[in-house]
Design goal:
single chain, mainly alpha, 2 domains, two-stranded antiparallel sheet, about 70% helix, globular, disordered C terminus
């Protein structure tokens, strides 16, 4: 009986993997059809455009190449980096007479594709397998950004009406953190502001550094890129379900004529307990609920635990700065962040420690996290006035439920860690040997 159960638990992940692959293909097709319907280029077209056109996210493409270089030798890395840099410079210089915008990324993308072709045709054994896996991971990372961009464009066309007033009313339960953080940020000085802004913008770079650390000795059963991709693919679905543009647009100067007058962010906290949906522009993405920046920051934090102190410090710094930035820059409401934390831990509960199998603990966390996230969105939409009127009780329930999810996740995956997940402390003997070799 035990062998049968074990075989079943091993088959389930394969079935899940096949289902995910089919769902992903259907997802890409749906994005392409949606893009065609609304009259803009889909994710596949943007991916092909990065070969010879002006790439939109050059930093992400360079990060994808950095991931692929992990599987190469030192000499191969130097050649690949040199080729990528040379090609990028040529493309940038060739575009300058026609486009003054500094767009880059053609070089690393072409080299990434070339590495895949070379590994498939010329190499064999472990090097071939590792390189193809690394190249595939890099391409998935790039494709994830294209899918997210397509989703954001679709939210603008599919959901012209936004729910910011409901979210801002519910945010009274958290004392309108974005308004307070915005004021603190404005008075913090240029140095602090630049650090916060840079960390917020360069979130993919932070995740790439963590991924390189995790993959430096091989391929663990779970790593941060997987978490990032799942969050990027699933998260934007909620943007269509719950369209929100954010404080600096709905109440601030970036909203222009569409912003709610008489309540400029962050100088004045609006107190209107008659929320209603209202139409917004056809440019701003409805990408606030939940906060995916917070979800990705949580992933960075989780994946840097049980690591050397420098890696833990880096993860903590990046996470704290990202969370501060989401509020201080007016991109999110406080309740967005709470939903983002629950969403991130729900995703991690599904993919972390695959050796554990789909036991009752994993199912409980997955279903419980999904139910909690759904309850939060329901409350923000239909109970926002009650949350504002009973802000102390609402804050206790909101933060208490998030804390319960954090504690349950910590108990399941950190008090009882599984070996081979890539999150254990480096073996002391290995560290000593490495230092001696160095």
């Amino acid at each position: 009986m035990g062998d049968v159960a074990g075989a079943a638990s091993r088959r389930l992940p394969r079935r899940v993997a096949i289902a995910v692959a089919v769902a992903l293909a259907a997802f890409v097709l749906a994005m392409e059809l949606g893009a065609w319907h609304y009259g803009f280029m889909g994710p596949t077209g943007h991916l092909l455009w990065d070969v010879g056109g002006g790439p939109k996210r050059g930093r992400v493409i360079w990060a994808a190449l950095a991931l692929a270089l992990i599987s190469l030798t030192k000499q191969q890395r130097i050649k690949a980096l040199g080729a990528a840099l040379a090609i990028d410079v040529v493309f940038v210089l060739a575009r300058l007479p026609f486009d003054t915008r500094l767009t880059y990324g053609n070089g690393p993308f072409i080299v990434l594709l070339a590495l895949g072709v070379i590994a498939f045709k010329r190499w064999d054994g472990k090097q071939r397998e590792a390189t193809l896996k690394a190249v595939g991971l890099g391409l998935l990372l790039i494709m994830g950004t294209k899918m997210s961009d397509a989703w954001l464009a679709i939210t603008v066309h599919a959901r012209p009406v936004v729910l910011d007033q409901y979210v801002q009313t519910a945010d009274h339960a958290l004392w309108n953190l974005s308004w307070w953080m915005g004021r603190v940020f404005d008075s913090s000085g240029i140095v602090v502001q630049r650090i916060i802004e840079t960390v917020y913008i360069e979130l993919p770079v932070g995740a790439t550094l963590v991924a390189i650390w995790q993959l430096r000795k091989g391929w663990p059963s779970h790593h941060i890129v997987r978490s990032f991709l799942i969050i990027a693919f699933i998260g934007p679905i909620f943007y269509v379900i719950f369209p929100v543009v954010g404080p600096i647009y709905a109440y601030g100067h970036l909203g222009g004529d569409w912003a709610i007058m008489g309540a400029p962010w962050p100088s004045h906290v609006p107190w209107d307990l008659t929320p209603q949906a209202f139409r917004f522009d056809d440019i701003t993405p409805r990408n606030c609920m939940p906060s995916l920046h917070t979800a990705w920051a949580v992933a960075i934090f989780v994946h840097t635990r049980r690591q050397p102190w420098a890696v833990r410090a880096f993860g903590t710094f990046w996470t704290v700065c990202t969370i501060i930035a989401t509020l201080a820059l007016g991109r999110h409401y406080g309740v967005d962040l709470v939903a983002g934390v629950v969403f991130a831990l729900t995703v991690e509960s599904a993919v972390r420690d695959p050796e554990r199998g789909w036991d009752r603990t994993r199912w409980s966390l997955l279903l419980g996290g999904f139910a909690l996230h759904a309850a939060m969105l329901f409350s923000y939409r239909f109970l926002s006035v009650q949350m504002a009127n009973y802000r102390v009780l609402s804050a206790v329930l909101l933060l208490g439920s998030m804390t319960a999810m954090i504690v349950a996740f910590y108990w399941a995956f950190f008090l009882r860690p599984m070996p081979g997940t890539g999150d254990e402390e480096d073996d002391t003997d290995t560290q000593v040997q490495s230092l001696a070799t160095a």
